[in-house]
Amino acid sequence: MSRLKRADRPYDVVLFGATGFVGTLTAEYLAAHAPEGLRWAIAGRSEEKLHRLRERLPGGAGIGVLRADVADPASLRRLAEHARVVATTVGPYVTYGEELVAACADTGADYLDLTGEPEFVDLMYVRHDVRARETGARLVHACGFDSVPHDLGAYFTVRQLPEGVPLRVDGYVSVDAAFSGGTFASALNQFARGPRLAAAARDRRRHEPRLVGRRASAPPAGPRFAPEVGAWALPLPTIDPQIVRRSARALERYGPDFRYRHYAAVRRLPVALGGVAAVGALVVAAQVPPARRWLSGRLKPGEGPSAEKRARSWFSVRFVGEGGGRRVFTEVSGGDPGYGETAKMFAEAALCLALDDLPPAAGQLTTAVAMGDALIERLRAAGITFRVAARR
Ligand SMILES: NC(=O)c1ccc[n+]([C@@H]2O[C@H](COP(=O)([O-])OP(=O)(O)OC[C@H]3O[C@@H](n4cnc5c(N)ncnc54)[C@H](OP(=O)(O)O)[C@@H]3O)[C@@H](O)[C@H]2O)c1
After folding, report:
1. Is 20 close to ligand 1, i.e. is its CB under 6 Å away?
2. Distance CA 195, CA 147 (A)
3. Which of 77, 255, 264, 287 has CB atoms 3.0–4.6 Å from 236's, for a disulfide?
4. Which amino acid residue places its CA nearest to atom 32 of ligand 1?
5. Ligand 1 touching residue 87 (CB < 6 A)
6. Strand duo 64-67 + 40-44: pairing
7. Which residue has the CA at smallest separation from atom 26 of ligand 1?
8. Going by CATH, does the domain composed of 3-144+342-376 fall within 3.40.50.720?
9. In this structure, are residues 143 and 346 in contact, taking their beta carbons and an 8 Å threshold?
10. In this structure, which residue's CA is closest to atom 45 in ligand 1?
C-alpha cells in the first residue's frame, strides 16, 4: 500500500496509552508543539479518562478520542486503520504489544513504541517484518531514551568519521534520574524472562539475512577505567547496542567493519560497584515470583517521578569514535531522560514519520535507518544537544 493511499485516513498520528505516565507527557508535548493542521487523536481503554485528559490539553476540542483495548484485537485493528502513524506507550510490550504491531503491519500504518525489551523486538521481527515490508509499514521500536540518543548519537558520530574504512565507536552513558511504575514493571518483567529472551534472539538470527561483505558487531564490553572520558566504564546490558548494530548492518555509511561498545560511565568506584550489586540483586529477586510481586507493589502503574525531580534530572551520552586515522569525541545530552525527554523524543519521532520527507524503507527499522538526520534536526530544534566536543 503506498503512503499516498494512507493519506486519506482520518488521523496523521494516534497516541495509544495516552492516559499513562509517559502517554500523558507525550499528549501534552503534542498539544503544545504539533504543527497547525496535524490531525491527531488520543487512544486508550478508558473513554472517561481520555475525555478528562482531552479537556486539560490546549486545543483539546480538535483532538480525536478513540477507545481501544489490548484485550480486543478488533479495536486495535480499527485504531490502525484510522491512522497513518500509531505511537503506543502500552507496555510491558512483550505482554501487551503484539496485536497492535500485527494490526499496523497488516494495514500499512507506521508504528512506534517505547520498548526497551529485546525479546519483544526480536519476536516482532520474526513474526511481522515480512508483512510490514509488503504493506509499506515502518515498525520502529525503542523511540524513547531507549534507544534514540544512543542510536542517533552513534549515527551522528559515524558521520564525523571518514567513509569506507573500519570504524570503532564507544558510547558512555551518564544519567541522574528516577523511574516510573511502568518502567519498573517492564524491567522486572524483562529480568524474569532470561531464557525466553535468548530463544527469541536465536530465532531472529535464523531469519535475518547474513550481512555479505561487511561486518557490524556490538560485543559484550568488560568493565574498565576509561581515561578518554575520565570515568569507570561498566557494561550496560540494555537493548541499545543491539539497535546500534542493526543500524550499522542496514547503512553502508557505517563502513566495512563497524564495532560498537556500550557502557555506563561512573566517576567513583564505590558508586559503580553499588550500581552493579543493586542491578544484580534485582535480577535475582525477579526470578522468585513472591519477591517479584512484592517489588512490583513498590511502584504502581501510572506513578512516576514528580515534576520537581524530573526538572533536576539530566542525561549525557558521550561517544568516542575512531577510524581512518581520525578520532572524534561527540555528545548527546538533555534533561530528564526517562520521561520529559522520552516524551519529547517519542512525539518528535511520531511527527517525523508523519510529516517529514524520509528515505524509502519499510519493515522493522531503527530510528537511525527510518529517520536519521531528520529526527536529529527535530530533536536539536526541541532542545536536545548533538555536538562534536573535539576532533583529533
Ligand atoms: N524507552 C524508554 O526510555 C522508556 C521511558 C519510559 C517508559 N518506557 C516504557 O513505556 C511504557 C509505559 O510506561 P509508563 O510509565 O507510562 O506506564 P503506565 O503509566 O503504567 O502506562 C501504561 C499505559 O498502558 C495502558 N494500558 C494498560 N493496559 C491496557 C489495556 N489492556 N488496553 C489499553 N491500554 C492499556 C494504561 O492505560 P490506563 O491509563 O487506562 O491504565 C496506560 O495508558 C513502559 O513499557 C515503560 O517501560 C520506556
Report:
1. yes
2. 23
3. 264
4. 69
5. no
6. parallel
7. 90
8. yes
9. yes
10. 91
